[in-house]
TrEMBL record:
Its cofactor is FAD. InterPro entries: Class-I_Pyr_Nuc-Dis_Oxidored, FAD/NAD-bd_sf, FAD/NAD-binding_dom, FAD/NAD-linked_Rdtase_dimer_sf, Lipoamide_DH, Pyr_nuc-diS_OxRdtase, Pyr_nucl-diS_OxRdtase_dimer. Residues 356-465 form the Pyridine nucleotide-disulphide oxidoreductase dimerisation domain. It comes from the Bacteria. The active site is a redox-active disulfide bond. It comes from Rhodoferax fermentans. One of its GO terms (cellular component) is cytoplasm. This is Dihydrolipoyl dehydrogenase. Disulfide bonds join C49-C54. One of its GO terms (molecular function) is dihydrolipoyl dehydrogenase (NADH) activity. The active site is at H454. Belongs to the class-I pyridine nucleotide-disulfide oxidoreductase family. It is found in: Cytoplasm.
Length: 475
């Protein structure tokens, strides 16, 4: 007799494990199926984000940032460092420890919330009178049945056509996070989040880094003014970024990787590197899910088709996160997971796609929420803009990091905040105030009238709000 559950979640990443916990909190009998394995073959809950994405990349970024500070900036504070060196193996080991702490934390949360965990690959078998049969293929094979199924199987790195990942020379985000020594030369294809973050890690450790980007501008989804400010900072740091290139043949040898490409000016060029990271986007992961067995509908991108409530074409089957439409962000997946669990329980779960924050954890950090200036122009929206540079912020000066600015966009008539864009120190933390303000449909005047602690970086947000009305006090 197969074990029966109210809810079965397939996938233990941010969308999946959060959905499972929230459903259990709401009184459902819940199972979560996830196949990710650690180096010992045991479960490694947390999906791409925890294992080969958000968490390990931030650990490496933090380590490399400490090294950069000690190498180039401690002297500004009167601190002399002699015999500085970087133990890359130890840095990677620390990253692995951080990942394991998160893996173990999710297992603890499952036990705390009485979520049944099945270690293996989950796939559809058939619809039944009690819901849907799900096969779990792990150390042993078993079948469980769920009244509701939440698919949260995430996404996979896209490879260049004809150039598969070998994770030794041609690396996805997975292999990029397992480099155990600083390469002399590193190439990256794609100047998106992964490209810029991984490029930053190794550039700080002395690697000659070149990023090739097919688009004519850097970070096309980012506000133009902010992207240009970030590009200036990256150029100054020595991160080589070539835009508008057309990548051709890629060859590997014992010496490394050779990339033939055409520059934006039409010149034939060659890039020779020790390793090549390919970060050209991700594809929804439905491999082995056996959607055909139940008739679960996919769209032309291979993503599971869902409506605004994350319902699929099948009754009782839901999907969240990277495997559906919308931005491939861990926190977006989490919000969808919570909303679906609440809808299953008869509540009114809600996700506001207009106030999902985005962050790139480079130095300077880049964060934004809402629409960009170019989007507002394209939409024909009359707006006001206010900017404030960190150069004029007392806390930023004390930190020794005055790169960048805060930019606020507000409706010209109502003054409602339409977007906030930040490049600079701790942008990832500063953006939260702006997300909350937009959720409450605040005006720029609201933030301008709120008392912010002095000295703090958040004063720059207040000053940008004041700048919308052309009345900054410190610039």
């Amino acid at each position: 007799m197969s074990k029966q559950f109210d809810v079965i979640v397939i996938g233990g990443g941010p969308g999946g494990y959060i959905a499972a916990i929230r459903a259990a909190q709401l009184g459902q009998n819940v199972a979560c199926v996830d196949e990710w394995k650690n180096s010992q073959g045991g479960p490694a809950l947390g999906g791409t984000c925890t294992n080969v994405g958000c968490i390990p990349s931030k650990a490496l970024l933090q380590s490399s940032e400490h090294y950069e500070q000690a190498s180039h900036h401690f002297s500004d504070h009167g601190i002399t460092v002699k015999g500085l060196s970087m133990d890359v193996a130890k840095m990677v080991a620390r990253k692995d420890t951080v990942v394991k702490q998160n893996n173990d934390g999710i297992q603890y949360l499952f036990k705390k919330n009485k979520v049944s965990f099945f270690h293996g690959r989950g796939s559809f078998v058939k619809a039944s009178a009690d819901g849907y049969e799900i096969k779990v293929a792990g150390a042993t094979e078993e079948t469980i049945v769920g009244r509701h199924i939440i698919v949260a199987t995430g996404s996979n790195a896209r490879a260049l056509p004809g150039t598969p990942f070998d994770e030794e020379l041609i690396l996805s985000n997975d292999g990029a996070l397992r480099i155990n020594a600083a390469p002399k030369k590193l190439g990256l294809i794609g100047a998106g989040v992964i490209g810029l973050e991984m490029g930053s890690v190794w550039r700080r450790l002395g690697t000659d880094v070149t990023i090739l980007e097919g688009l004519p501008t850097l970070l096309g989804v980012v506000d133009d003014q902010i992207a240009k400010e970030a590009k200036k900072a990256f150029d100054k740091q020595g991160l080589k970024i070539e835009l508008g290139v057309n990548v051709g043949e890629i060859k590997t040898s014992k010496k490394g990787v050779t990339v033939a490409y055409t520059s934006a000016k039409g010149e034939a060029k060659t890039l020779e590197v020790d390793k090549l990271i390919v970060s050209i986007g991700r594809s929804p992961n439905t491999i082995g899910l056996n959607v055909e067995a139940v008739g679960l509908k996919l769209n032309e991108r291979g993503a599971i088709e869902v409506d605004a409530d994350c319902k699929t074409n099948l009754p009782g089957v839901w999907a969240v996160g990277d495997v559906v439409r919308g931005p491939m962000l861990a926190h977006k997946a989490e919000e969808e997971g919570v909303a679906v669990a609440e809808r299953i329980a008869g509540q009114h779960g809600h996700v506001n796609f207009q106030t999902i924050p985005w962050v790139i954890y480079t130095s300077p950090e880049i964060a934004w929420v809402g629409r960009t200036e170019q989007q507002l122009k394209a939409d024909g929206v009359a707006y006001k803009a206010g900017t404030f540079p960190f150069l004029a912020n007392g806390r930023a000066r004390a930190l020794g990091d005055t790169t960048g600015m805060v930019k606020m966009l507000a409706d010209a008539t109502t003054d409602e905040i339409l977007g906030v864009h930040i490049v600079g120190p701790m942008a990832s933390e500063l953006i939260a105030e702006c997300v909350m303000a937009m959720e409450f449909r605040a005006s720029s005047e609201d933030i301008a009238r709120i008392c912010h602690a002095h000295p703090s970086l958040s004063e720059s947000t207040k000053e940008a709000a004041l700048a919308v009305d052309k009345r900054t006090l410190n610039f």
